[in-house]
Amino acid sequence: MFGYDWPRLHAALNDLPVALLLAAVLFDLLAALTKRASFRQVGFWTMLVGAVGGAIAVLSGLQAEEHIAHGEAVHQVMEVHEELGLITLGIFGFLTLWRIVRERRMGSRERGLSLLLSVGGLGVLVATGVYGGKLVFDHAAGIPSEVLQAELQERSEDHHHHDGASEPAATPDSSMNAPAGEHTDSPGAAPHTHAPGTPPHKD
Predict the structure, then answer these.
(1) Tens digit of each residue's pLDDT (9 = 90 or more) over 128-168
(2) Rg (CA), the chain
(3) 108-133 and 72-102 helices cross at what angle (nearest 10)?
(4) CB–CB of 10/57 below 8 Å?
(5) Where are the domains of the chain?
(6) Torsion-angle region of residue 197: left (phi > 0), alpha (psi -120 to 50) or beta?
(7) Taking 50 as the threshold, does the pLDDT of residue 175 lie above it?
(8) Which residue, among 152, 109, 94, 128, has the nearest Cα to 17 in the 3D structure?
(9) What is the DSSP string of 2-65?
(10) Which of 28, 52, 102, 180 is the most exposed place for a label (fewest CB within 10 A)?
């Protein structure tokens, strides 16, 4: 869809409902602290849209699971991520329906219970995101094997390019290149010869 496969689509659909549900809980907390109905109304509508977006994100995640090549370690993390996502959707879905029916008639105790449940749902939402991050950053889930192998090869080559300082070329010994009978006394000195019969000496 629009050049996206299911894993990429799931990643693209995750951010908005998370932000909306977080904002909804914050607005409800502000409403409880300030007693302002306007905050409560914003919290209600934000939660409604966030819950719908969360349902779409969960559905895309269930499809993405079938299209990601993975082993046992990834499967275990994926199962936890999926379970937490379903629990999050269940909590906020229930809260949204509850508030659709009871929003205008809630008493303080009922509203306090609703707020407490939404804060708990927010905690599960954060845990869902943590396990989603583990899939990507700890296990590279969703990245095709050939792409990952090419990236590892490129990183390895780039590492050697930057960290492996080239060995300086050895300076040739000028005495090695001097004609027969010539030698140098010290590096950089001009080669010279001795008269025949001169005894050997140390330069």
Answers:
(1) 999 988 888 887 777 777 777 787 788 888 766 555 555 55
(2) 35
(3) 160
(4) yes
(5) 6-140
(6) left
(7) no
(8) 128
(9) TT--HHHHHHHHHHHHHHHHHHHHHHHHHHHHH--HHHHHHHHHHHHHHHHHHHHHHHHHHHHH
(10) 180
Q: To which residue do tokens 């330069």 refer?
A: 203
Dmax (CA) for the chain in angstroms is 122
CA distance 184 to 190: 6
Q: Say which DSSP state 105 is in.
A: G
Take residue 174 and report the two structure tokens written for it.
């000028």
Q: Which residues of 97-129 are buried (b: 16+ CB within 10 A; e: fewer)?
A: eebeeeeeebeeeebeebbeebeebbebbebbb
